[in-house]
Amino acid sequence: QTLHAYFAAEGILHQTSVARTPEQNRVVERRNRTLVEAARTMLSAAKVPLFFWAKAIAIACFTQNCSLVIP
């Protein structure tokens, strides 16, 4: 109950899905696809090797988490 109260206080929408069913998890699947596309674009634009893939994903995630999105 405490967790649900926290979600309500912070305006967080808590959603659950069945394990190993990407069809039910489309929001997360789209978010992951967006991160991969952003990382691929950064690596290509900077002309750096795939060795930096993990860093590119981390930077793409950080950038998107800091971006304000108004629905």
- Average predicted confidence as pLDDT: 90
Name the helix and strand elements from N-terminus to C-terminus, one letter apiece: HHH
Helix fraction?
Answer: 55-70%
| Percentage of residues in DSSP E strands | under 5%
In whole angstroms, the N-to-C terminal distance is 28 Å
The chain-level structural class is: mainly alpha
Overall structural domain count: 1
Uncertain runs: none
Annotation field: number of helices: 3
- The coarse silhouette is elongated
Number of strands: 0
* Alpha carbon gyration radius: 16 Å
For the sheet with most strands, the description reads: none
Structural features:
elongated, 3 helices, mainly alpha, 71 residues
Q: What can you see in these coordinates?
A:
The protein is mainly alpha-helical. It has one domain (2-66). Helices cover 62% and strands 0% of the residues. The chain has helices at residues 2-10, 26-46, 53-66. Helix 2 packs across helix 3 (53-66). The chain is elongated, with a radius of gyration of 16 Å. It starts with a helix and ends in a 5-residue tail after the last helix. 3% of the residues are buried. The mean pLDDT is 90.
Summarize the topology.
Blueprint: H1 2-10, H2 26-46, H3 53-66
Helix pairs in contact: 2-3
